[in-house]
Design brief:
GO terms for molecular function: alpha,alpha-phosphotrehalase activity; alpha-amylase activity. It contains 18 helices and 24 strands. It is an alpha/beta fold and 555 residues long.
């Protein structure tokens, strides 16, 4: 696990990173133009959201050709140049593989629609029930039924996501062979990183049945056959390359399954990507609600996953942000009164955990959710559908928009803020999504006199240079404290009587707070990192933490 523990991944949402040609959409050449910025951060790998050929109904997660670069983003030559230049910087490429479903514009689906029996086996095609109702009562994760009429036939096809994203039937060996070929194609091009989108829902049963209203996700999530499929994919594609790194995005998963997905002995994936800790501001587990986050629940979830994954040989990607989440700073920090300190505290809390940190573009400069005025500012199909459903439930327009504004995926998809100027320096044209707040939050000003980017650089350097952080164990501390998330990273020191220990304290609130330090941690210490000026060398029984203070000390 040591090599994984020393790595840091940077996620680039290509569409929103930098536009080189003025069409309002970020592209591969735009990334090439910003490599000096990426180099400053000193990350090890870049995860690129899909830039394959796509109708873009779900921002590239509806792929119609896995082998070609969408002209919207550039050419294969652009990709090869980008990959080559990243390699010279010591940065690897991670591609986003969407293998649970493909676009209805993909040739496989088109051939199936045209009557090709072999390609019809690539998809879940089912007739209506005897009473004429849909094959099952499943609900799409984007809202509405999970079934759509298959052309002018009497059949329906399954789509757990948008109706233009047809679920692929992994029971069919030819389907799996095709997907192996896709991954192997990119491996042969030198790609060594793969992030597999919602990969734990590929194990749907052959016979699909109605849910009882409570067990629907269990009918298609984390089923035993997923492990078999991943072992096969590993063996036949990326597993042939010892230096490959794979991340599985796990939807509504369990820690028990994730241990198995990521334990090296199982030969499935390198690590998992889970979201339980990002649902602590969901009312009754429902995303489209708005409540303050539950800090104690957040602590409990992070602690549970850290302990169980460490104890059983699993490995996680640790993160706050990605393209499917609002910015964490707007959810768990204070972007108005304590933007810098709360951004740094959140970064510390995650980066010093056991796992491989993933940074999403913009968080390293403290970007926050956009200040949009109405639903027309959003383009994401999920947000628009949710707004309509909230109205149907009886919310008025202001209430519905307030909820959507707090949870929309487009919040983090806004263009990267490069300058304080027009369009945030992202494009000379009209951006596909409107940026806001660039006057006070942008790369140019941050690098000139900000503190958040420099703090991220320190965290990244610490992980690369300190084995306690990179591959040490995890012990929870102060589990009942209602303000501070505290833990200890430990590592047996070779040739020494005692293990090395780093105590991490994170004040998750905007007031000063006195935290009681357990006796075993009182005494001489060394400040490892802090987002305030700390130079003391002795830790007493009580420590006063500043608002949103993060402090790590070696004792």
């Amino acid at each position: 696990m040591q090599d994984l523990g020393k790595k840091v991944i940077y996620q680039i949402y290509t569409k929103s990173f930098y536009d080189s040609n003025g069409d309002g959409i970020g592209d591969l050449r735009g990334i090439i133009e910003k490599l000096d910025y990426i180099e400053k951060l000193n990350v090890d790998m870049i995860w690129f959201n899909p830039f394959f050929v796509s109708p873009q109904n779900d921002n590239g997660y509806d792929i119609s050709d896995y082998y070609q670069i969408d002209p919207l983003f550039g050419t294969m030559e652009d990709f090869e140049e980008l990959q080559s230049k990243l390699e010279k910087l010591g940065i690897d490429v991670m591609l986003d593989m969407v293998l649970n479903h493909c676009s209805t514009e993909h040739e496989w689906f088109k051939k199936a629609l045209a009557g090709d029996k072999e390609h019809q086996k690539y998809f879940y095609l089912r007739p209506a029930k005897e009473d004429g109702s849909l094959p099952t009562n499943w609900v799409s994760k984007f809202g509405g039924p999970a079934w759509e009429r298959f052309g002018n036939t009497e059949l329906y096809y399954l789509h757990l996501y948008d109706k233009t994203q047809a679920d692929l039937d992994w029971h069919n060996q030819k389907t799996r062979d095709e997907l192996v070929n896709v991954v192997d194609f990119w491996c042969k091009k030198g790609v060594r990183g793969f992030r597999f989108d919602v990969i734990n829902v590929i194990g749907k049963a052959r016979e699909l049945v109605d849910s009882n209203g409570e067990n629907e996700r269990a009918l298609y999530t984390d089923t035993p056959v997923v492990h078999d499929y991943l072992k096969e994919l590993n063996q036949k594609s990326f597993g042939k390359y010892p230096d490959s790194i794979t991340v599985g995005e796990m939807s509504s998963t369990s820690v028990e399954n994730c241990i198995k997905y990521s334990n090296p002995k199982e030969h499935e994936l390198s690590m998992v990507f889970t979201f339980h800790h990002l649902k602590v501001d969901y009312l009754d587990g429902k995303k489209w609600t708005k409540i303050p986050f539950d800090f104690m629940k957040l602590k409990q979830i992070l602690t549970k996953w850290q302990l169980q994954m460490a104890t059983n040989g699993g490995w996680s990607s640790v993160f706050w942000n990605n393209h499917d989440q609002p910015f964490a700073l707007s959810r768990f920090g204070d972007p108005v009164n304590h933007r810098e300190k709360s951004a740094e505290m959140l970064a510390t809390a995650i980066h010093l955990l056991r796992g491989t940190p993933c940074i999403y573009q913009g968080e390293e400069i403290g970007m926050i959710d956009p200040e949009y005025d109405g639903i027309e500012d959003y383009v994401d199909v999920e947000a628009i559908n949710a707004y309509g459903e909230l109205l149907a439930q009886g919310y008025d327009e202001a209430q519905a928009f307030d909820i959507v504004k707090s949870k929309a995926r487009d919040n983090s998809r806004v263009p990267m803020h490069w300058t304080r100027g027009k369009n945030a320096g992202f494009s000379h044209g009209t951006p596909w999504l409107r940026p806001t707040d660039q006057e006070r939050i942008n790369v140019e000003d941050e690098l000139a006199h900000g503190e958040i980017f420099a703090y991220y650089q320190k965290l990244i350097a610490l992980r690369k240079n300190d084995d306690v952080i990179a591959c040490g164990g995890f012990l929870p501390l102060l589990e009942d404290d209602e303000k501070v998330f505290a833990y200890v990273r430990t590592l047996e020191a070779s040739g020494k009587a005692n293990a090395r220990k780093i105590l991490v304290l994170n004040n998750f609130f905007g007031e000063k707070y006195e935290v009681r330090i357990p006796d075993e941690f009182c005494g001489k210490c060394r400040v490892v990192i802090s987002n305030y000026e700390r130079d003391f060398c002795y830790l007493g029984e009580v420590l006063s933490l500043e608002p949103y203070e993060a402090l790590a000390v070696e004792i």
